[in-house]
Amino acid sequence: MDAVHDTGAVGVSAEVTSPDTRDIAHAGTAERGTRRQMPLNGRFRIGSATKTFTATVVLQLVGEGRMSLEDTVEQWLPGVVQGNGNDGSQITVRQLLQHTSGIRDIGPEIPALKSADGYRAERFRTYTPEELVALAMQLPPNFSPDEEQWSYSNTNYILAAMITQKVTGRSWAQEVNDRIISPLGLRDTSTPGTFPFILGPHAQGYAFSTGTDVTVLNSSMAVGSGSVISTAHDLNRFYAALLGGRLLAPAQLDEMTTTVNAPELGVRYGLGLAEIPLSCGGSYFGHRGELLGYITWGGATRDGTRTAVVYVSSDGGHDTQQAMITLVDQELCRTRS
Predict the structure, then answer these.
(1) Alpha-carbon distances, residue 191 vs 38, 100, 127, 229, 257 (angstroms)
(2) What is the pLDDT of residue 336?
(3) Bridge-partner residues for 12, per DSSP?
């Protein structure tokens, strides 16, 4: 934890669990310029770790026979993905979840995520999923989906959230709550919608070279892709349940953990879940998360029996992220007598 903090992070918190242990550690402070300690089981925006929740819901629907991974986007969202070389009739649900659709990432187009001035001007702005996808359709795709290339795109998971609503007739947030959060008793996990505040104990989040406090944010620009609020403890419980087979049938869990090369990330990627090699041999499954001021890294061993999650409350450079990866790796490699 000290090694992560020493890279310049304001606050750091982590939890490691196994069948008979739960270890928690903190470093740094919850607010810059104060001695306020990082909160016990503090809440934070988990960013792209949200994608694993979204993929889990979609795969549950597949398991129920209500949709297929080979369905096209056009089947469920007619006319939504089109223009400038984009063609929803050629893109499958699998390709959305796997980031092999070629659709451009809308994240870099959101002013609040790009600069301190943009954040101050738009931190309370509400986006609709339709508006976000329409913005992405103004950009040509990175590649055609039949080229079997890989490119990370938050737009893919905004579309997955929209498809979830079309299939079920209920919002993405309702499905995540009823299918994952409530059954697992994740009491500190929420889908905030347009509500810009983090309720309960939390550290302040900081971003940009100015160290701007960005704790308050309407995260509607990240529905399905990055808007969930959770804790290290709840994330560990989620990863343990998912890899332990309590959320998906074996066939769907196999689909999720069947991976392709993701050169942008330096890992392999399945459906909303990355496969990361372990220094002690083998690999684990998890997901990096970042949404303006909070960065998390975590996951679980293949059988879900050992989990580790760490987060920092400020934008992290390469050194911070490498220290977080090292921490998760050493804890998942650690053996207990």
Answers:
(1) 23, 26, 15, 6, 25
(2) 44
(3) 27, 312
Amino acid letter at 36? R
Active site residues: 48
Whose tokens are 């609503």? That residue is 165
Which tokens in the block code for residue 177? Answer: 């709550």
Q: Given CA atoms 180, 182, 188, 189 in this order, what sign does their dihedral have?
A: positive
Q: Tokens 């982590």 belong to which residue?
A: 14
DSSP 8-state class, residue 202: B
Structure tokens at 118: 């943009």
Return the half-sphere exposure (C-beta side, CA atoms, 13 A cut-off) of residue 251. Answer: 9
Coil vs helix vs strand at 275: strand
Angle at 30 (CA atoms; ends 24, 35), nearest 5 degrees: 105
Identify the pLDDT of residue 284.
Answer: 98
| Average pLDDT for runs of 10 along the chain of length 337 | 94 95 95 95 97 98 98 98 98 98 97 97 98 98 95 98 98 98 98 98 95 97 98 98 98 98 96 97 97 96 96 90 96 74
> Pairing state of beta strands 86-87 and 82-83?
antiparallel
What is the distance between the alpha carbons of residues 188 and 191, in angstroms, rounded to a whole number?
Answer: 10
The β-bridge relationship of strands 44-45 and 82-83 is unpaired
Tokens of 237: 């419980």
- Provide the whole-model pTM: 0.97
Q: Are 296 and 47 in contact (CB under 8 A)?
A: yes
Nearest Cα neighbor of 297 from 12, 2, 23, 31 is 12
Alpha carbons within 13 angstroms on the beta-carbon side of residue 284 total 28
